[in-house]
Prior knowledge:
Blueprint: H1 2-33, H2 40-60, H3 71-76, H4 78-96, H5 100-107, H6 110-121, H7 129-147, H8 154-178, H9 184-205, H10 208-218, H11 221-247, H12 250-270, H13 279-380
Helix pairs in contact: 1-11, 1-12, 2-9, 2-11, 4-8, 4-9, 5-7, 5-12, 6-8, 6-12, 7-13, 8-12, 9-11, 12-13
InterPro entries: EmrE-like, Sugar_P_trans_dom, TPT_transporter
Region (Disordered): 326-381
Subcellular location: Membrane
Amino acid sequence: xxxxxxxxxxxxxxxxxxxxxxxxxxxxxxxxxxxxxxxxxxxxxxxxxxxxxxxxxxxxxxxxxxxxxxxxxxxxxxxxxxxxxxxxxxxxxxxxxxxxxxxxxxxxxxxxxxxxxxxxxxxxxxxxxxxxxxxxxxxxxxxxxxxxxxxxxxxxxxxxxxxxxxxxxxxxxxxxxxxxxxxxxxxxxxxxxxxxxxxxxxxxxxxxxxxxxxxxxxxxxxxxxxxxxxxxxxxxxxxxxxxxxxxxxxxxxxxxxxxxxxxxxxxxxxxxxxxxxxxxxxxxxxxxxxxxxxxxxxxxxxxxxxxxxxxxxxxxxxxxxxxxxxxxxxxxxxxxxxxxxxxxxxxxxxxxxxxxxxxxxxxxxxxxxxxxxxxxxxxxx
Length: 381
């Protein structure tokens, strides 16, 4: 029952993360294309700042239970925060130079990077054959679709590829950390506080802060409200990501990201457009679709295999219990028979002893008159 509940929680967390991720991609694209706000580091600084303020406000009102930030925990979560900051900035930069559909296709290479790094760094075992084939299809589809993109932007694709690597490392490190801490809000707080100084430094060094100041001066208040709403949605996305990694694994989280990218691609074709209508692009997207569906099938088969192994272990344990009971029963029988034999032996010895005693007594009684006669004769003399 516990395993089934855990499985349902994992599916729900994965669906929640996928939904939030699709929503955020389109909201960020609206912010960049509609308002012309191409400042990814500023978006992340606002998002992290709001996250810290919101979590401490919830903690102060005792609506949620969050452990306080300590330097020890912050040091343990430093590397995930570094890779998170790098992934966020690279991903937003890539999205600003690509259409939503092709960005979704590119992000579907994350599962391959996650798979390889999990085997190399975390010493995880290789997944099943179906899972490997599905991830290869996802990656090949990405390459084919990218080669057919007529609006190819080298910087966009390069930053997208680097974003995939940093995201894979980030997810694996988060998975490793969640093995010792299962409080999702605490992980969110650690990530926000650790990454905020890094993002702020990048914002100042790059000169983006001055450009943002000029942009905000030229725009009206509705834009600032839109930016805050999108930052709040980003907080929800981060929470769903940690929740999904906590209840599933880094590989599953990355594949859920790939599946949401598929939905993102299909929706992007009919909304923002920008997809080159050629054979390679269509073939690449089709391969991505096949890989995503095959991964779902592979995970279903793996789950059935795990359930079957669980039943077999139960049967084996029951058989072992029966053998143990038989052994215990036979041991008890042997002990009983041994005790009976000992009792019989003791009884025989006791009878023998009694017989010997009676014989001695009898002999003593027969020898008594002689002794008396001798004594009388001596006295008479």
